[in-house]
Specification:
It is found in: Cell membrane; Membrane. The chain is an alpha/beta fold and about 260 residues long. It contains five helices and twelve strands. The strands form three sheets. A six-stranded mixed sheet has the order 7-8-9-10-11-12, covered by helices on one side. A three-stranded mixed sheet has the order 1-3-2, with helices on one face. A three-stranded antiparallel sheet has the order 4-5-6, with helices on one face. The termini are far apart.
């Protein structure tokens, strides 16, 4: 009699935890709904933009450069992007951005220091910054009287930008007597300049030599009468009025 085969019992498969999946899906949909509602609400948008520290650059100009607008998404632009955009302005040396949720962005800019002034063709006074850029001085801003005036310089003269950089490296106390700086190039010294001082000295030097020569200039100004000072490869001083030997002769004495 043939043996009957006993069927193999199937292993019981664990039932999937469908309830956990449903909870996860519902939670995901809830978070997505909250995100949509948040980004459509006023809380996710810029409500105030504050810019401080600017003197010569207008707030409206900086606001335009930043790319920010009230009402736009608060998280739409990073602080690093704002800083990068504002630093394209040649007047700006440093920028810090503080984003305060909800909706407020504080921007603090630092402009390059003023190293000199010049008169525009229309007579307006312009400040020359250490970066070499020239900006109109607002009427409500005081003028630093210890800064020199640059005259007879072309707007696009690269030597003016170099001079601005050099003046920024010289301590203020060494340039307070300088009243005017004029370009005076020669074939031997293409960057030669002529300087006039408040103490009535005329100085010939170059932009590249000025940082090393300015101390000598101040020594002569403090100890000598007004005259012409040449500070090139060699330093010379000649008074405008030569010494008169007769001034040293006592009255009634024979010369």
């Amino acid at each position: 009699m043939p043996k009957s085969q006993i069927p193999v019992l199937k292993k019981n498969r664990p039932k999937r935890n469908t309830s956990r999946k449903i909870v996860f899906i519902l939670l995901f949909l809830f978070v997505a709904l909250l995100a949509v509602l948040f980004f459509r609400s006023s809380m996710s948008r810029i409500s105030e933009i504050e810019i401080t520290g600017n003197v010569y650059t207008s707030t409206s100009e900086l606001l335009e450069k930043s790319g920010l607008k009230v009402g736009e998404q608060f998280f739409g632009t990073s602080s690093s992007e704002i800083i990068e955009q504002l630093k394209t302005d040649k007047a700006i040396s440093n920028v810090t951005v503080d984003k305060q949720f909800p909706g407020t962005i504080h921007i603090k800019v630092e402009e390059y220091p003023t190293v000199a002034y010049e008169l525009a063709a229309d007579g307006a006074l312009k400040a020359i910054l250490a970066s070499g850029t020239s900006l109109i001085v607002p009427p409500n801003i005081g003028v630093a009287v210890e800064k020199p005036i640059l005259t007879q310089w072309k707007t696009d003269d690269p030597l003016k930008a170099k001079l601005s950089e050099v003046l920024a490296t010289i301590p203020n106390e060494l340039t307070t007597d300088i009243s005017e700086i004029i370009p005076n190039p020669t074939p031997s010294f293409p960057d030669q300049i002529r300087i006039y001082t408040k103490s009535q000295f005329e100085v010939i030097t170059t932009v590249s030599m000025l940082p090393d020569k300015v101390e000598y200039l101040n020594q002569v100004i403090e100890t000598e009468r007004p005259g012409k000072i040449t500070m090139l490869e060699a330093d010379t001083y000649v008074p405008f009025i030569a010494d008169n030997p007769e001034d040293d002769v006592e009255p009634g004495a024979s010369p």
